[in-house]
Amino acid sequence: MIDILQIFLSESFWAASLRIASPLIFGVLGALLCERAGVLNLGIEGIFVVGAMTGWMTVWLGAPLPVGVLAAAFSGALFGFLHSVLTVPLGLSQHVSGLGITLFASSLASFTYRTALPQVSSPPRIEPFRSLDVPILTDLPFFGPVLFQQTALTWLALILVCVVWWIMDRTPLGVALKAVGDNPEAVNAQGLSVIRLRMGAVVVGSSLMALGGAFLTMSAFDAFFFGMVNGRGWICIALVIFASWQPGKALIGALLFGMFDALQVRLQTEAGALVPPQVFLMMPFILSIIALVIVARRADYPRALLTPWFKGQR
Amino acid sequence: MRPWSAILIPVVAGLAALLLSAIPLAFAGAPILPAYAQMVAGVFGSVFTATETLTRATPLIFTGLAAAIAFRARFWNIGGEGQLYLGALAAVWVGTGMIDGPPILMIPLVLAAGAVAGAVGLLGPALLKTRFGADEVVTSLLLNFIILIFVQMMLEGPFKDPMGLGWPQSEPILDSAALPALVDRMRLHAGFLIGIAAAFVAHAVLAYTVWGFRARAVGDNATAARHAGIGVRRTILGVAIASGACAGLAGVSEVAGLKGYLTSDLSPGFGYAGIVVAMLAGLSPIGVIAASLFVASVFVGADSMSRAMGVSSFLADLIVSMSLICMLVGGFFARFRLRLRAAPAP
Question: In angstroms, rounded to a whole number, what is the distance separating the alpha carbons of residues B53 and B58?
Fold first, then answer.
């Protein structure tokens, strides 16, 4: 009991929680934008892989880190565009198209990586983002290590939460975006383009997902591994339901998840002798399912989610 | 969809994906025409390569059926990979010395054990959907990861072969529980015939029984089905049991027919490839047989080409995923017939 209390009081625990949450924040925000506009994007898992690979490879080829981040976002936007073409103007099954994007994106990323680096035993490393180390603030007790020794990408994630919230809650664009996921016919009657709004949301949302992948190779680690995304994308799809499609709650959900994950790593070192290590590895996935079941009954899905819209057809 | 387009579209989609693979081939610096020739030779070159293709198609028939049955009822079972591993785990639980008997008893027993395990694996997400309204896409997907870790835990623990030199693998399946080989000195096994039989049974059940009609009705329009007095929840649970059982059989067939023991790398994504198979088949159980032969040919052919030309073997996954996307686009053209004609004069 004392041990758990000590964990919660330690700075490193809270710093780790925020670090684990960062890629999920990107992913949940991306999934949230797509779904709020009425499009489920199961391409997320593959887009994470593509973002991780593209960001890493751009830097490995000699570009500075911010260019790598932009390249990752652009790669995500490309796959998002493909998904949006298939699901919005063509109105094809969002489930199947999304899974197709995941299979396509992850195999393309793996193929590109293997083609560029045919025979390497240990994956080449890049110099990843370093912690910001803001003068004075870093030296604050507790808040210094937790908040101000994070990398620029974690800060980008936190800023994006505010940006997405501001756009959705405070701008006409946000109102149109939410309306297009609830009642596209009304948006059309307003003279706005349902197709463009939905496609735009999927493209932007997918580029955010790719940033989540880029965080893994450019901030959390310094190299690309096969299977490194390991279901994080799917967890984001569960978290976005848990967050009732709201940016603020998405941040809370991702942070809660990060806390549980950081906690299980610490418990693993304490109780590793009693319980097989795999039990701890399962925890993130079990927690996601539990979170989903808890909110499922009162989940307020965007009303036009999964429903394609065709001009002039009711 | 007219009958001819149900065959034409997947064929065109598959060919388009193969043609598109020239781009990654060129990117990898391989000579394109010899690469294609090598792919064809890798599939049809000899009796060995042909039986290898059928062997590779076997698990895909089962996982393809699992996806096709579920998707027909609009129940999105994306957990075929996990159910496959549960089936395999049940097969080694029953088939490695727990009991022994003549093959005529043991083989049905391991098959049944695997089917039950797979069904139970999908019953969880199905109950979470019907009881709590939890989205089965997410739960069945996340369950894949949980089950794979669980299998790894079992292979490090109670299922570990003490004679396995420390490797995390199960004890070998008893000879009496192993699926017999179909061709002398080849790896093709009876699982392939069981898969074909399962496809025909699934077709008959879906097309000619009341239960099959209910499953299709729930998929086409759940609201209308409910008003017609069909128990939607019960139907979904039934569909989940059938779908999970098929995926579980894929695991049994790989363990008891091909590998002989269970490791945690038994399946290179057969569960996910099954979704591609089902879509290429237009969700028709008979079509699943043809589609799994195509996907297996791509895997075997591209693998052989990759080894010969030094191209990354991820090319096979790339072609398979592109064929799914081409199939989707083709489905669009089937729904809306495009007619080329001059605009009427004003």
Answer: 9
